[in-house]
Amino acid sequence: MVNMTNLFEKFIELKGITVNSNGRTILNIPHAIIPADRITACIGPNGAGKTTLLKLLDGLIQPDTGTVSYSFASKTSLVLHHTPMIKASTKTNISLVKDVDPTIDARAIDQVIERVGLKGLANSPAHKLSAGERQKLCLGRAILQKPNLVLLDEPTANLDPNATEQVEKIIQELTQQGSDVIFSSHQLAQVQRLAEYILFIDQGEIKEKGPVGPFFTNPETSAAKRYLQQELITD
Ligand SMILES: Nc1ncnc2c1ncn2[C@@H]1O[C@H](COP(=O)(O)OP(=O)(O)OP(=O)(O)O)[C@@H](O)[C@H]1O
């Protein structure tokens, strides 16, 4: 048997995981090695458990049973799909990250605002930003925490092609600068553009995982085949 732990420089091992909600098991992963090398995409139907898995990997939620162990000293940053803004400027909203890490200084904040392309909107009210601009703000906040693993929940949902391209560029830059990324997405073309490894989740279980190329050309499970067919029809 292949020892999966030798295949990746950085990985997360899940053992005996269950996450329950309202008497229902929403995540059930007896054993999995999740690569945290470069970019991994988490795909699957609505309600499959992708967001729950990202929250679990971040430590935002605890499993009801089982363990999550990292092969590295993890410093994660999770960007969820809907992040509320306070009624203040973009800069003030980004600066809220100082609540998490008070050592982040004003210069670093200005640099990140520029890096994510929000310099011209730094003093604009954040609650009036477009969906794409909000997502850039959230990525900026994540970057400031200097994570070595960034967890992104549908980072380009509801974004137009131009904003999607800009956010994808930021994601690629993250890996170039030493942060690995695990993201969820319903956009299969995006997954093929960005990711090297796939986790296919269905009904709370990791049904299939592996390198992106073979997954798309030759999925092994009937659940993955069905999902890919449906997504390609509706794309
Ligand atoms: N806090 C919660 N309380 C109750 N049920 C929850 C909670 N969070 C998630 N669930 C349920 O767990 C299941 C998995 O949800 P999750 O958001 O992880 O799926 P997902 O794959 O990210 O879905 P989508 O693609 O629609 O965002 C769903 O059936 C959802 O209703």
From TrEMBL:
Entry-linked Gene3D superfamilies: P-loop containing nucleotide triphosphate hydrolases
Stored InterPro entries: AAA+_ATPase (IPR003593), ABC_transporter-like_ATP-bd (IPR003439), ABC_transporter-like_CS (IPR017871), ABC_Transporter_VariousFunc (IPR051782), P-loop_NTPase (IPR027417)
Record-level Gene Ontology MF annotations? ATP binding; ATP hydrolysis activity
Which intervals hold domain ABC transporter? 12-228
Q: Tell me which UniProt keywords the record has, alphabetically.
A: ATP-binding, Cell inner membrane, Cell membrane, Membrane, Nucleotide-binding, Transport
Q: Does the keyword Nucleotide-binding apply?
A: yes
Q: Which SMART domains match?
A: AAA
Return the Pfam families for the record. ABC_tran
Alphabetized PANTHER family for the sequence? ABC TRANSPORTER ATP-BINDING PROTEIN ALBC-RELATED
Q: Write down what this protein is called.
A: ABC transporter
Its lineage opens with: Bacteria, Pseudomonadati, Pseudomonadota, Betaproteobacteria, Burkholderiales
